[in-house]
What we know:
With about 260 residues, this protein is mainly α.
Amino acid sequence: MQPPLLCVAIRGLSVATLGLATLGLTCRAEQALSAAQIALYTNCQKSAPASLIDNCTAAIDSKLFSGLELAGLHLERAAGFEAAGDGNSASMDFNRAIELAPGNAGMYFNRGKFFCGRGDYESALRDFAAALRLDPGYVAALYERGRVLEYRGDTAAALADLSEAIRLSPSAAPLYAQRGLVYFRLQDFKRAIEEENTAIRLDPIEAIAYLFRAKAYQAAGRTDQVSGDVDTAIRLNPTLARCVHWNGQVPLIVPPPP
């Protein structure tokens, strides 16, 4: 039987994405959860941060959960606090999740993503490294660490992480899109365009690949192909408009931070 996802490592997905009720059931494959436990887990899937925080708190305070399940509840409440703008409470819950499940790579990964969101890249790199020590094949951690390393200008290490991630997951479009950005930084614009082409072939709606390809086209002097890719990127993901600053007809494309 395939091992439960969270019981091995939360592969870059929040507990809400995985579904807490399902999570509890899978992590206790050999012993059924009580109706009360299932109800508490299910309540923690509320999308509004306030409801999420309240319901996770009720589940935590119920004393019905321990170990990895309890860690998952703290992880989910941390996401609620983060969404609500309470970084200090989120940080405490991320830390508690790791205390409860120190051998789970996903706990470190999720805290690393939290640190990225706060611009604390040193702490993020430490957590991604911890996740990868526990699970060297953790593709999401390789990808995120590669993004941070590229952003900090460590192109050799970024290229190594992203190439390993691609070896492990050769059909994942975002990996090629990000590796293309590394080649752009190395001023290998031809290879950068090839990487973005691969990303788009694998997933034609991978918006960031169009944005990165536009940046590479511009640097390579293929200016007639820039605006089409910029338009496509923004149509697929309107939030990317913040990455494009127009000077007349010429766009200045600034990739989003990790």
